[in-house]
Design goal:
Largest sheet: 8 strands, parallel, barrel
CATH superfamily of one domain: Aldolase class I
Number of helices: 18
Number of strands: 8
Distance between the termini: 31 Å
CATH architecture of one domain: Alpha-Beta Barrel
Radius of gyration: 21 Å
Structural class: alpha/beta
Order of helices and strands: HEHHEHHHEHEHEHEHHHHEHEHHHH
Strand order of the largest sheet: 1-2-3-4-5-6-7-8
């Protein structure tokens, strides 16, 4: 049988899993994906945790102990989620060691309610780094205006960062600038740059969802012909900017000091429109030095029928620019699209976080009352969170 995932990996694409749960950990499922499906990293978000905590009895013992101790709900959420992330870091440690610290990473996100507060984001990033206490951890920080200086400050402390919720090219350029500044400060602070990792999570399918909605509303034949093209074009032009920045003399100085580049990570790669090929956001974004984080269903779909071609990105820059020109000509304002997606992205993760807090609160109350069924109290809240947050 053809090992399509191995072929994908051989092109320079790192395959990461966009999911985590204690069931996946305790069953050995994550380790199996690492060993058999070339999964080399894990990403999480508030929606993923809300669903995980609601769907498994494996959390009952910890909820029971937290309830007896009278732990406040926000601390309980952090103890529950960091437990899973620490465990996942240990599972992925062989990939981390084998790749000299490039892969084998597991991400945990700062409280999304802090997305517009720089200092509190940095403080939370430090706290999570101390709490998980694993070298292969990534702290996820959103690429909001307030998030940019937080990214620099966190990296300057020697803490590895996954920058999330990137939708637009200009913001992506700002993220790379924040990364370079952070490493320069880390170097000045005496940190070993070879130990600091970073990815920039550039969201894909949500771009098509928003743009296609606008194209449908415009309704012309020219507009409809552009459906399903914006997301790939956007990501390809992002990779062009990545190549420019990490081919610069400024970067070369950091590389000579042992730094690893901040790889583009294609996030939100499950197809939202059933009319599109289910692995389109993998097949059309193959390029060396990238990460593609996928739900397990997409990993299995690619293993079954994905088509691996060498570099489907760098030869498509001119075509991508034409897509943007054509979108503007039919009346799609991409700047407004990007602004809308960033605002909604933060709002969705905030909603998922609130649902997670509410679900854990009810579970703690149930555990304290000795019901023995803490997870059921949270289940409805997690389902609401999943609907609000969607795929990362």
């Amino acid at each position: 049988m053809t090992d399509r995932l191995s072929e994908l990996q051989a092109t320079g694409v790192a395959i990461w899993l966009d999911d985590l749960s204690r069931v996946r950990l305790s069953s050995g499922g994550l380790d199996q994906l690492r060993r058999e499906s070339h999964v080399a990293g894990v990403t999480t978000n508030p929606t993923i945790f809300a669903k995980a905590l609601a769907d498994a009895d494996e959390y009952n013992w910890q909820l029971h102990d937290l309830a007896i101790r009278g732990v406040e709900v926000e601390e309980a959420v952090r103890l529950l989620t960091t437990y899973d992330v620490r465990w996942a870091c240990d599972v992925m440690r062989p990939s981390y060691d084998a790749s000299a610290g490039v892969d084998g990473r597991v991400s945990i996100e700062v409280d999304p309610r802090l997305a517009h507060e720089t200092d509190r984001t940095v403080a939370e990033a430090k706290s999570l780094w101390w709490l998980v206490d694993r070298p292969n951890l990534f702290i996820k920080i959103p690429a909001t205006e307030a998030g940019l200086p937080a990214i620099t400050a966190t990296l300057a402390e020697g803490i590895s960062v996954n920058v999330t919720l990137i939708f637009g090219l200009d913001r992506y350029s700002q993220v790379m600038e924040a990364f370079l500044a952070g490493l320069e400060q880390a170097k000045a602070n005496g940190h070993d740059l070879s130990k600091i990792g970073s990815v920039a999570s550039f969201f894909v399918s949500r771009v098509d969802t928003e743009v296609d909605k606008r194209l449908e509303k415009i309704g012309s034949d020219e507009a409809k012909a552009l459906r399903g093209k914006a997301a790939v074009a956007n990501a390809r032009l992002a990779y062009e900017r990545y190549c420019e920045v990490f081919g610069s003399a400024r970067w070369q100085q950091l590389a000579e000091a042992g730094a690893h580049p901040q790889r583009p990570l294609w996030a939100s790669t499950s197809t939202k429109n059933p009319d599109y090929r289910d692995v389109i956001y993998v097949e059309e974004l193959i390029a060396p030095g990238t990460v593609n984080t996928m739900p397990e269903a997409v990993i299995h779909a690619y293993a079954d029928h994905g088509e691996t071609r060498d570099d489907t990105v760098t030869g498509g820059y001119d075509e991508a620019r034409k897509v943007f020109t054509d979108l503007a000509s039919v009346g799609v304002d991409m700047a407004d699209v990007i602004e809308t997606l960033e605002r909604e992205g933060v709002e969705k993760f905030e909603a998922s976080w609130r649902e997670l807090l509410d679900g854990v609160r009810k579970s703690l109350e149930a555990a304290a009352q000795g019901s023995g069924q803490p997870r059921r109290a949270a289940k409805g809240n997690a389902q609401a969170a999943a609907q609000a947050g969607g795929n990362a």
